[in-house]
Design a protein that fits this description.
Blueprint (H helix, E strand, L loop, with lengths): L1 H27 L8 H10 L6 E5 L5 H9 L4 E6 L2 H11 L5 E5 L12 E4 L3 H4 L2 H8 L5 E5 L10 E4 L7 E6 L2
Parallel strand pairs: 1-2, 1-4, 2-3, 4-5
Antiparallel strand pairs: 5-7, 6-7
The protein binds S-adenosylmethionine.
Length: about 180
């Protein structure tokens, strides 16, 4: 009897997680697909030395922001995520790191003017919506690092092709 109850509970939890995944994918235009560990390492490798304020747009489950905060203890890292479960999971992940903050917010409504670096991993349709926001907010010299998708209207200063099944690339842009 207890086993049946537990199985029913598990099915309900899986259903709720899947339902929110589909809902936020539809609402935001991007599912919470995490960057691969290879991409995370490559992003850390191209971070500018002097970056003090790093903001991740759509931080998902928090893996990228946490790795960056650990690699760069001298920088303040902020992950902005709207989807509830990934945000809650990333809050749990952040425990103990004083230079890492997660906010549950629509990043289009967040002021990016103090960012030295902006990180993103979005589908191409979503990347098309970013340039007006980035051009309006970011200061000259700020760096945008994109996992995989090009940023329309900007020309990449550097492109790092990653090997492996996903054929990812890391693109680095500088605001002039
Ligand atoms: C492809 S995932 C990338 C997750 C993470 N950046 C990584 O590299 O592992 C994109 C994330 O952006 C979030 N997102 C999309 N639009 C958003 C918005 N307007 N405000 C906040 N988060 C958003 C989605 O919920 C999703 O978790």
């Amino acid at each position: 009897m207890i086993t049946v109850w537990l199985l029913n509970g598990l099915v309900i939890v899986i259903f709720l997680v899947m339902a929110q995944y589909v809902y936020y994918d539809w609402k935001l235009g991007a599912a919470a697909t995490p960057s691969s560990s290879r991409a995370i390492r490559a992003v850390i490798d191209v971070l500018p030395e002097n970056a003090k304020n790093i903001i991740e747009l759509g931080s998902g489950w928090g893996g990228m922001a946490k790795a960056v905060a650990q690699a760069r203890p001298d920088a303040q890292v902020t992950g902005i995520e709207f989807a509830l479960w990934p945000y809650l999971a990333s809050k749990l992940k952040a425990g103990g790191l004083s230079n890492l903050t997660f906010l549950r917010q629509d990043f289009f409504k967040y002021d990016l003017s103090t960012a030295d670096v902006v990180l993103c991993y979005m589908p191409p349709e979503m990347m098309e919506r970013l340039p007006p926001k980035l051009k309006a907010d970011l200061k000259s010299g700020a760096v945008i690092i994109s996992n995989s998708a090009d940023l329309p209207g900007f020309s990449a200063e550097k492109s790092v092709q990653l090997t492996g099944f996903l054929a990812e690339k890391i693109l680095v842009y500088k605001v002039v």
